[in-house]
Design a protein that fits this description.
The complex is a heterodimer. Chain A is mainly alpha-helical. Chain A contains four helices and two strands. Chain A has one domain (2-114). Chain B is α+β, with helices and mostly antiparallel strands. In chain B, helix 1 (8-32) runs antiparallel to helix 2 (108-141). Chain B is elongated and about 80 Å long. The two termini of chain B are 25 Å apart. Classes of the chains: A mainly alpha, B alpha+beta.
């Protein structure tokens, strides 16, 4: 119970951060030479979960990285509005999933306390 | 620890909305002054151009921490130095001895395209605000 809340907590933190990074990309859609950024956490989280060690999970920290693979326009900007909006939609669904799962967890806990 | 702010992403998108709407102002001003032969300094109007700059610069250097993500800012409004157009209009009071007047270097087509781009970017930022808002309200729903 405790671990799954902790995992969901990490997921919420990371996707909130990703939302900020994507919003920042969109705000800079017309800034010359701006390179889009993204958040790296999926691999780290998967690794921590696979290791089945609670301490491993506690130290997972989402990281902001520059996306070097994205193609640049002629003004050196690599933000694609469609892509950012698409990623943002996906990210907000992930966030929604995490918030619902947290609620579900608390509901279960409440039932256990009440005994019904 | 992350920031206490409930919806910081909205602040970031707001800088985008602000910058794009100011860009729109500059474009509208260019279009409005497409025929202005006497600008503020008494000379022919010069087309204005905006310069956007990211307000983050060292987000990556700060070890991937996010507190340096600050959106965009309209750094400067500069004059377009392309030469003005010459039009033959001998009756005009601003015409030179050969009957030519210098008209602003504003190209309405160019301004229209810029305006479309600014308005699309504005919409994208607005969509981001909506999404951040729905995320924040989902987080509040955990308390229900």
């Amino acid at each position: 119970m405790n671990e799954s809340i902790q995992l969901l907590n990490k997921l919420l933190d990371a996707s909130a951060m990703r939302q900020r990074v994507l919003a920042n990309n969109l705000a800079n859609a017309d800034t010359p030479r701006f390179k889009r950024q993204d958040v790296e956490f999926r691999e780290m989280l998967t690794k921590a979960v696979d290791s089945a060690d609670a301490r491993e999970l506690a130290v997972v920290q989402p990281k902001i990285v520059v996306d070097t693979a994205a193609p640049s326009r002629s003004d050196g900007n690599s933000v694609s509005m469609q892509r950012e909006l698409g990623e943002m939609t996906e990210n907000s669904l992930l966030y929604q999933f995490a918030t619902r799962a947290v609620s579900r967890n608390f509901d279960t806990l409440r039932k256990a306390i009440r005994g019904r | 620890m992350s920031e206490i702010t409930l919806m910081p992403a909205i602040g970031i998108s707001a800088t985008g909305l602000d910058a794009e709407s100011r860009r729109m102002d500059v474009i509208a001003n260019n279009v409005a002054n497409a025929q202005t032969t006497r600008g503020q300094d008494g000379k022919v109007f010069q087309r204005k151009e905006v310069i956007f700059a990211a307000r983050l610069s060292n987000a990556i250097r700060a070890g991937g921490k996010e507190n340096k993500l600050k959106g965009v800012e309209l750094q400067k409004i500069v004059a377009d130095e392309r030469p003005p157009k010459l039009i033959y209009r001998p009756g005009h009071p601003d015409a030179d001895e050969n009957g030519y007047i210098t008209m602003p270097n504003v190209n309405p087509l160019e301004e229209m395209v810029d305006m479309m781009s600014a308005s699309r970017s504005y919409e994208a930022n607005l969509a981001a605000v909506r999404m951040s808002k729905s995320m924040a309200s989902q987080a509040l729903d955990i308390l229900k």
